[in-house]
């Protein structure tokens, strides 16, 4: 929701993971505001407002929105998954990163937040569609949880989480690395 009876929708207009991309590669995200009457907000272009472009498009083959949540103050938190094929002969799904963005309804970076969002320290893993999610915390911030596939426990990930204030500050111990909520467990899949 948008704090009223409308909704925010995030789209990835050109986003073919693991498929040859034009140069420079793209991974932009666009914000659309649908009003309570079921129409697009006339204050925005019909194609939406581009609010995120990867910092280095040559290194990112695509960006996808995992979840978008209204912040209760007229903006949107967006958890993204960005392909980061840093190793030769690998696919996007093998090396992706999570990023938390906070944007206004107009698509601008929320005041005080970095334009590229906050990087969530997830190690490369084999099922990036299920590696993270978020919920609002009821106080204007969000709680982000993710599966951490570090090299010693690659097949048995731990689950970590961090609560962020509306200003982007980590509120729980552990900083950007978050708290370990669940110790590594064999064959843990999916996080919702």
Summed over residues and divided by their number, the pLDDT gives a mean of: 78
Reading the helices and strands in chain order gives: EEEEEEEEEEE
SSE class: mainly beta
Straight-line N-to-C gap: 19 Å
Choose one word for the global shape.
Answer: globular
Largest sheet: 4 strands, antiparallel
Q: Please count the helical segments.
A: 0
Q: What is the share of helical residues?
A: under 10%
Instruction: Give the strand order, joined by hyphens, for the main sheet.
Output: 4-5-6-7
Low-confidence stretches: 15-19
Strand content: 25-35%
Q: What does the model show?
A:
By secondary structure, the protein is mainly beta. It contains no helices and eleven strands. The strands form three sheets. It has a four-stranded antiparallel beta sheet with strand order 4-5-6-7, with no helix packed on it. It has a four-stranded antiparallel beta sheet with strand order 8-9-10-11, with no helix packed on it. It has a three-stranded antiparallel beta sheet with strand order 1-2-3, with no helix packed on it. About 3% of the residues have low confidence.
